[in-house]
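Please produce the structure of this protein holding glutathione.
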Amino acid sequence: MIRLHHIPGSRSMRVVWLLEELGLDYQLQEWSLTDGGLRRPEFLAMSPAGRVPALEIDGRSIFESSAIVQYLTEREGRLAPLPGQADRVAFLEWMGFAETQANIVQALNIQHIFLRPEAARSIPLMRLDTKRLAVTARALNAHLAGQDTLLPGGFSAADCMLGFNIDAVFRFLPAADYPALAAYRERMQARPAYARAEAKAGGNGIYTQDFYEVPDA
Ligand SMILES: N[C@@H](CCC(=O)N[C@@H](CS)C(=O)NCC(=O)O)C(=O)O
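Below is the modeled complex.
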């Protein structure tokens, strides 16, 4: 049995989506971001930084979403170019890019949503990270202007890694400024496996607003 340790709306949604794309059976074990459970020894034994996702599979557990995604694609022989194949380097690059972008989103989530009291927030940091996020969005918008998926050869697991980010990206950047990226989000969200993942494991993770402006100083 495959068991995914998961928090709705978090990076573990990448893995739920991929499991659905691959048509694998799995169980979900849900955790909370705020009740301290991720710091319990039994969770840290699976994921030493105390983060989701962690995946129990084939008699072991795996942490880090990119490692999980690569393991699953190699196990199933689908949705990722193999070493030596065309697009392999691009696949690895976009897998890494997805995590670079997710880290900026995470910093903005902390500033806009989690830090309390509000006086603890840093408007200069919010501005800086919004600009850094815009660099990633501009790059993706240019890349996706000429193709439907990250890799020219079609949908891959790199889209699961990155496509999940885009909803969060548009909480901080106006979708209208990035039309090719907005159209990519629509295409990804229209995939049946994405809809199944949302229905089984989604839910509004953390956002209570459609859009978060950087407040005036
Ligand atoms: N690079 C890791 C990052 C995982 C990560 O930061 N997960 C967040 C949720 S999106 C988490 O578990 N945060 C809990 C915490 O920071 O305490 C991955 O891709 O798996």
